[in-house]
Amino acid sequence: MQLLDGKLAAQAIKEDLKEKTSALLQKGKRAPHLAAILVGNNGASETYVASKVKTCAEIGFGSTLKRLPEDISEEGLLAEIEELNNNPEVDGILVQLPLPKHISDEKVISAIHPSKDVDGFHPVSVGNMVAGTPTFIPATPYGILLLLEHYKVETKGKHAVVIGRSHIVGTPMSILLSRKAYPGNCTVTICHSATTNLKEMTLQGDIIVAALGQAEFLTGDMVKEGAVIVDVGITRVNDATKKSGFALKGDVKFDEVAPKSSGITPVPGGVGPMTIAGLLMNTYNAYVSKL
Ligand code: GUN
C-alpha cells in the first residue's frame, strides 16, 4: 500500500509556483493575486480560507481576504464581486461556500467574471469543462488529478467509482476521469444517495473517489483488493481528547480500507492540500492568460 501524500505532492507544486513567481518579480512584473470573500463566521470556512490565504503568502502570491457580515444583503455581496471583477490587479476571485440562506449561490457564482473564476464553478467554466475546452477546473477534482499524476497512478481503462454528485467534487470528478486524457480514460460510475446497490458498485472500483461527506462511510468490506482510494471527506467529529474539541474524519474507514488498497490518501494531509494546490494553479493560469 502506498500512501498518496497530498502534503508532499502539494509541496512540489507550491515550490514550482514559488519559483515562477520569483522569476516574474525579477522581471519587474507583479505577483499573481487571489481575492477571497468570506461571509459570516462558519468555523470550517474560516479555517479553509485562512489556509488558502496563508499558502498564497508562502509562495509569493498576493491575496486579499474580504470578510463580510452574515447579514450582508445579496446586492451588497454582488457589489463586492463587481469591484473585484473590475480590479485589474486581481487575477482570481473565490467566494467561500456555503453562503447564508438568504443569498443565492447561483447568482453569486454567476456574478464572478469567468476569466477570474478560479473555483471553476461559473456556468461558463462548467460548460467549457464538459465540452473539453481548456478552462478553470474546480480545485478539488483538479487537485486529485494532480495527485494521481504525481504518484503516476495508472488510470487508462480503469473503473472509477465516484461516490457523491456535488457540483464541487463528484460531478466534475466523474467528467474529468472519463476524459480522453491522463489522468482519465476511466470507465466512470457515479453513485449518490439514490443508488440502491452501492456496495456492488464500490466492489468493482479500481479507483474509488469518496466524496459524500459522511465520516468513515467506506468500510473494508466495500472495496476490492488493490483499489486506489481517494478520500475527499473532512467531517468534524466531537473528540474531547483533542485541544480543539474535535477530530477530522474522512469518508473512508482508513484502518480497514488501507491494508486492502494499493494506494490511499490520508485525512488530513491528502486531498485538502491538493485542493489548495489546484486553486493556486488556477490563479497562476488566470494571471498568465492576461499577459
Ligand atoms: N466550500 C467547500 N469547498 C469549496 C471550494 O472548493 N471552494 C469554495 N469557494 N467553497 C468551498
UniProtKB/TrEMBL annotation:
Residues 138-288 form the Tetrahydrofolate dehydrogenase/cyclohydrolase NAD(P)-binding domain. Pfam families: THF_DHG_CYH, THF_DHG_CYH_C. This is Bifunctional protein FolD. One of its GO terms (biological process) is purine nucleotide biosynthetic process. InterPro entries: Aminoacid_DH-like_N_sf (IPR046346), NAD(P)-bd_dom_sf (IPR036291), THF_DH/CycHdrlase (IPR000672), THF_DH/CycHdrlase_cat_dom (IPR020630), THF_DH/CycHdrlase_CS (IPR020867), THF_DH/CycHdrlase_NAD-bd_dom (IPR020631). It comes from Lacibacter luteus. GO terms for cellular component: cytosol. Coiled coil: none annotated. Its EC number is 1.5.1.5, 3.5.4.9.
